[in-house]
Design brief:
The protein is α/β, with parallel strands linked by helices. The chain is 43% helix and 18% strand. Strand 2 (15-18) and strand 3 (24-29) form a beta hairpin. Helix 5 (173-185) packs across helix 6 (194-203) and helix 5 crosses helix 7. The relative contact order is 0.11.
């Protein structure tokens, strides 16, 4: 079974994950023999097939207007917005907000423009919410950045800087709010201790429900959001 191998000097055991497109990625200790890695992957063949089948089901029937590499519609549940994407001319006079993109460029260039727009729009719409939550609950943070990350919804650095994933715009408003609270609470508790989770529960009593939702959002993301750019 083909797979992509990542050697990590601090890895203590073999880890395996399946990408959205079904590709198998294996992380292994630096000195582990190739034959042992191959045996590990072969032993997981049933699990890999089941995950790939589940991913295929989640992607079947998706509307290319919203999920393709050149979408004509962008739905952002977190901020309750729907945008039209116009390629070339048109769009004027439409009450629905629209994003205009060139009609004559390569798909990779269009995808890059869409991903950059997503990060800018996340800053415009979510930064005020972070400020509101911080002010209401006595948090003080440093810089705030927005990225298009593959595996993390957010992070809080040791010097109080916050980084949020622009993909939060595809979550429900409640799940998005939970992530903002989660990272703000890390300003007080830089770990996941009981005190951290007690503070999260104080500000977001249903956080466990939102955590479950976040696990499913990755498989519902549009292709233009997740494609890697060279």
């Amino acid at each position: 079974m083909p797979y992509r191998l990542l050697r990590h000097p601090r890895a203590r055991r073999v880890k395996l994950r399946i990408e959205r497109d079904g590709a198998v990625v294996v992380t292994a200790p630096k000195r582990l023999r190739q034959s042992e890695i191959d045996r590990f992957v072969a032993a997981q063949a049933g699990w890999i097939a089941a995950v790939r089948k589940r991913l295929a089901r989640s992607r079947s029937g998706r509307d290319p207007a919203a999920f393709g590499l050149r979408p004509t519609r962008i739905e952002l549940p977190a901020v309750e917005e729907q945008w039209r994407v116009v390629y070339g001319e048109g769009g004027e006079g439409d009450p629905e907000p629209f994003l205009r993109l060139p009609d004559d460029e390569a798909v990779e260039a269009t995808t890059g423009r869409l991903q950059q727009w997503l990060k800018r729009h996340a800053r415009r719409t979510l930064a005020p919410r972070v400020d509101e939550l911080a002010l209401a609950n006595g948090f003080e943070y440093g810089r705030l950045s927005f990225r298009n990350q593959k595996s993390r919804w957010g992070s809080c650095s040791s010097n109080g800087n916050l980084s949020l994933n622009a993909r939060l715009l595809f979550c429900s408003p409640e799940a998005c709010r939970y992530v903002l609270i989660h990272e703000l609470v890390h300003l007080e508790h830089p770990n996941h201790s009981p005190r951290f989770w007690n503070r999260v529960a104080e500000l977001c009593p249903d956080y466990r429900q939102h955590m479950r939702e976040l696990k499913t959002v990755w498989n519902r993301l549009p292709d233009w959001v997740t494609v890697s750019l060279s």
